[in-house]
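Lab notebook, page 48
Experiment: co-folding of the full assembly
Goal: obtain a model of how the components sit together before planning crosslinking
Operator: M.T.
Materials (sequences as entered):
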Amino acid sequence: MSDTDATNAEAESEPSGAAGGTGAPTTEEPSTRLDLGSGGPDVSEQYPLQVDGLRKTFGGITAVDDASFQVERGTLTGLIGPNGAGKSTTFNLITGMLTPDAGTVTFDGEDITGQRPHAIANKGLVRTFQIARELRDMTVLENLMLAPKAQRGEALWRSVTPGFRDDVVEQEEELLERVWNVLEFFDIDHIAEEYAGNLSGGQRKLLEMARALLTDPDMLLLDEPFAGVNPSLEKRLLEHVHELREQGYTFLLVEHDMDLIMENCERVIVLHQGQVLTEGSPAEIQANEEVIEAYLGGNV
Amino acid sequence: MSVRDDVADRIPGGDAGLIVVVLLALYAVYILVGVGLGYSVRGQLNTIAVLTFYIGVFAMLALALNLHWGYTGLFNIGIVGFMAVGIYVMALVSKPLYGSGGAAQVGGLGLPLVVGIVAGMVAAALLGALVALPALRLRADYLAIVTIAMSEIVRFSFLSGELQQFQLFGERVGFGGGSGLILDFTNPLEAFFAFFGLWDAYLGFVDAFTVIIPNNPKPVVDGLVYGAVLLGFVAAFFWLLKRTGESPFGRVLKAIREDEDVANSLGKNTNRFKIKAFMLGCALMGLVGILWLMTSGAVTPNFFRPRITFFVWIALIIGGAGSNTGSVLGGAVFAALLYQGPRYLKNLIDTVIPNADAPSSFGPAVAPLVSNFDPAPLFFYTIDSVRQLQLVIMGLVLIWLMHNRPEGMLGHRKETAAGIPLTASRARGTASTDGGDAGGEVDE
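Observation: model returned without errors.
Model output:
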């Protein structure tokens, strides 16, 4: 399924790659691109995440300047760009950590612009952080048990009232089992009882991805998940990502390692100075003069 | 550190056992000192009653603060304000109607004590929500500023003439202003036993004490029984907060303390959790305010100076933030050694060295030391000023703790935030037996 989707995407995006992301399509398929904002059912089915004209300024600096792109369902899409291109800000804008000055973010056909982070996460759009943010003084198990959505025991009264607490305990046992499965999937079951603060950098990255996965997301935004991870662990993490993608998860991945992006992503979006410079298949991106210039600082 | 843990591990009964052992040790010290002082049985029992009272209130306050600070990371330094609201609202609701005789300048609504207690707790919780709503959106330290300001606003409000007396539902009620409020409702202990139909039985129980205390044993027995009731409340607080902590709710609170952004990005509405936890803690603080003062006959606003707030913080720091057991121990140790201890020590020294008249001021106390190396006057002067020195001693203890054991007695122990024990072995057993189908598809 994903194979055909990927080819479709390439076919579609090939001409629009030169659009420069300013929302002024120069291709023969303008209707598709213009429709994205309104997010018809078909479009949102194929592209769960649509970002349109996103803008954010900090004081005099425009971090994200009219960025528009879309992420196709069931793909591993890479978001690249030189330092300061606005990748992390874009992530923060999408996930509600920051509120955009202009533009819209649409997820599964619903406008989620400016919604609070927890509301967006509950819709199935979950992120990880650039610097792994484990909950230090909680064990790996506690970290993971936190993640599942809509836990009965999150209602205070139910957790303390005798009788009702049995329900909570019952669900906790189910959750614990799910957690163990995920722990084994990521091969970190041997550190289950360790405090998260004692983990190595790579283990924290695994923990963070496992935790995000336990929220039962439709789409995962991974902010440099491989930074500071040794090559063998990186390989394993990538295997996990591919395995999950085959199960139907959608990934948007910020990463600096070009080789990694080119080898693993179906589609690549290039941000430069807060704008979408281009998007397309890895091969197209590698051949794109503008991208090379942006990375080598040709515009200076 | 490890030695202490070993000792704690060897005590049977786990945490409850540890608490009982520490309490017994504190009582033993007091009784021994009392024997040294040559106290009568009445005096001994009185001492124990007073000690139990303070252990009870400080343990409860430390537990409530632990929910705020230890679990959720909410920096509440307005504890005393919530206590004040608790007892004042309770008095407003439960004092008898005005004009039914008695010395009180203002009346209340004449409702039963239980209604008053619930009203006091609800009022404290609502005040907590009011304070928290704007402050929780800001960074953590702002909550501290807002809460301490609130506690002073509460105190000055109760001091003000405007609220001294007013009409509510056609009744003349009020908070009494600076001259205080007479708490002329039924004796709470009597109401408590009458509720269970045991008041006559209790009076018989008191009479039995004439064997030990020949004349008028009632005040002493009342004190002891009230202390026991307070310890019962400590147990109830402990139970409630342990359950709160060991649940998915408590897990989110812990996550908020560790990193609120993470909890948020995992879909937890952290503001809701914070407000709930804050309101629960405030209600409990209001209840402690009620329990502390409702037997005292009267209440004045200036009782609620911020120093009590800081006493509770010291108790929590001694015990160890994040641990419910530690909170109880911290409350007990603080009450016995830092709050009551210095006064008791002064009595002891006064008995051992009788007829020593302390100099009335610092000058005469130091002069002999300088002129003929006689340290005695300075020593007696110091002993005589022990009440003032108490705060200095607390400060020194705090500094020592911050340097040597910032996590307190039990703060290093992490209490599991889950409804079930999260141990590797047990979970692995269930996962391998019936988790096969779910695990199979994702296994490599």
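Interpretation: The first strand of chain A starts at residue 49 and ends at 58.
Next step: discuss with group before ordering constructs.
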